[in-house]
Amino acid sequence: MLDLSYTSPKPKTIAGAHEDWELVIGLEVHAQVSSNAKLFSGASTKFGAEPNSNVAFVDAAMPGMLPVINQYCIEQAVRTGLGLQAEINLFSAFDRKNYFYPDLPQGYQISQLYHPIVGEGEVLVEMGNGEARLVRIERIHLEQDAGKSVHDMDPNNSFVDLNRTGVALMEIVSRPDIRGPEEAAAYVIKLRQILRYLGTCDGNMQNGNMRADVNVSVCRPGDYEKFRVADDFSLLGTRCELKNMNSTRFIQAAIDVEARRQIAILEDGGTISQETRLYDPDKNETRSMRSKEEAHDYRYFPCPDLLPLNIKQAWVDQIKAGLPELPDAKKARFVADYGMTEYDADVLTAEHANAAFFEDVAKGRDGKQAANWVINELFGRLHKDDRTITDSPVSAGQLGGILDLIAKGDISGKIAKDLFEIVYTEGGNPAEIVESRGMKQVTDLGAIEAVLDKIIADNPAQVEKAAANPKLAGWFVGQVMKATGGKANPKVVNELVAKKLGG
Ligand code: ADP
Ligand code: MG
Fold first, then answer.
1. pTM check: above 0.70
2. CATH code for the structural domain at 445-501
3. pLDDT (tens digit, 9 = 90+) per residue, 223-281?
4. What are the domain boundaries of the chain?
5. Which ligand is closest in space to the CA of residue 231?
């Protein structure tokens, strides 16, 4: 299904004082699983609830409470894996990752270190100019989210909100295949798009429902290719991890400053120490948070409260059969079936709801024209009002009705735009509006001819000029349109003008 005619983008190169450097980036994306209940409890996951109101005993780590796995979260992880063309591990298991934090009452996070539920997959990241990178996914594991410490409510006290504690997260780990800031942003956007199509994560980055740890290192040109051949990480530079990024704009800026910081150190003869850093958008710099912890620092061990997870291939197959058409396939189909440009197909498939709306409008109609109207008129108008397709005042049926009136020759394209605005602001049935407001196009040859004859009679000088220069005939077309309030059928007018002045 993947179109391998794409060429790979060049890696981003930064010129140092002495030599060129290339960027190497790998992302760990934390995506909150769309599920009404938490991973190991029945507590609600609703955003914005009263603090500490969505907390079951097990989330608060009350003594003797035991986690019970939420099958729907497992299904969502499997669905995500399938959507990323990944291997699904029928055997997986949960481990305890031990650390202390005030917002982690258990004193450990339940995660999957040794046996993640999803193995290797891939994501095609298109750069919008015919170039694309196939980014490999290393694994996806399920884990619990932590709670939230609140430091800005009181001058002397900090508070803890456990609503988020125990909410299911998928950690989607990429291979270090991303080679520049723009690619990193495009990867996050593509991943978000796929997850939203699958319905496994709402991708709301503002609410922190999707956030990324961005690993950055730099290397000399050629070293990355050697790494790809040998799969030997020692051929790459030491990475630093930029924690908890939830904006694609900041991801790009952070990668750029972090790479430059590393290059300056290396060119100065220094070495990079592997650490976790935070990006400060106000100062546009990254700051050290802590030295990098290793897996052994967490004293991982299999969670004794949970049996390993054994899922059946038949169940996986059933989930696979229920997958929706995904963005790459939908885009290819739109280009092939409707003859639209890749750009238009990108716009229409960016969100599943946009694509569905378009297909409703295009059904039984001219697809290219439908695409034009949906993108330029409808999306343009919605954008102006800061609205999305889900709260569009114009339904697919209404927009289709407008296109039908154009196709029948009842209204011109220009009148159709006025009609669209009326339907957008006032609602109503397009055909009825055209009828009741007298917007119907005049195609009656005799009526148009009478108007044109009068204009010709009143403007002998223009007639003379047009005889010398046929390009000036357009002036007469304009006058007829003006005299008829834009309702004359432009095709008929053009033909008549050509006949009278050109003949
Ligand atoms: P950890 O949990 O310790 O951060 P993971 O293996 O889960 O380790 O994730 C490491 C991430 O860092 C992966 O996305 C991987 O692709 C990326 N990575 C590893 N080495 C490098 C490197 N030299 N440069 C950039 N990214 C790297
Ligand atoms: Mg990490």
1. yes
2. 1.10.10
3. 999 999 999 999 999 999 999 999 999 999 999 999 999 999 999 999 999 999 999 99
4. 22-317, 324-436, 445-501
5. 1
